[in-house]
Amino acid sequence: MRLLYGFVLSGDYHSIEHTRLVTTEFDRRIRHKTKGYNLGVYFETHRGTAIGLSGTVDKMSYEDVFSPQSTRNLSQVLDREEKRGSIEFYYRVFSDSFLFLKGGYSEYNFESPDFRWRNSYSYEINGGIRFPFMGNTRGTLSLGYMKFIPRKEERKSFSGFIGNTDLDIRYRRLGFRFSFHRGPQFSYLSDAYYFVAGNYRAGISYYLLSSVRIDYDYTYGRMNYPEPFYLNITEGGSEEIYRKDRHHTHSAGLVFRIFENTGLGLTFNSWRRNSNYPGISRGKNYIGIYVTYEF
To answer: pTM for the complete prediction?
Structure first.
């Protein structure tokens, strides 16, 4: 909504649900829901340069699809409310591309009384470029810095660079995908609190016909837990270990155009996780069907 004197008001309500077969920390089917709203006010010049304030409130909920009523379920450990406020600056580079710089503060408040010791907050600054949704290149290239601080003082904080990059490039019959994401994520394991995840993906598509394409993606990830685990040893006592996981996924499939940019895909996935923590390494092969709006 455009107001007087160059001021623009924006807002949205969103409700997103994902069901995943495997994630960074789980090797079973997990349902993740996000519901929330966003509100922003910006001052925009005639050249498209803008500065403004925005705020977001999200409710995050989790469910183990096969064991929703288990004694120590995902909902109890991970359900939370996230509040974010930021100041944002955008500078138009081309007709539909922007350089941006954001700085903000976030709070993470857990719903279960037994896990409110996980409450925390963070400061973050990031910048990059946002490409148009039309043309040969689209997506966002973003890097930044975060300071994540648990409210329970004896828990270890995080400070370091973060990334949130997704790029898609189309050249004739070929499509290329690149992504990079890095930052702290809350752990399902209460003793671990959180881990630092770094995920890298590269993919290629070949359009056999205007309505059929072949996809291949390779994903590599790292998970480092900043706080130690203690393992009982047979001789008595315990051993301190800092858990480090590495996981990778090969995905190959076919996608068929249904209409316009909407497609239906069938994919085969081979997922592996290796860990220095005993008994955690896993592997799984599975077939999935999905809908994409980026054919």
So the answer is: 0.85
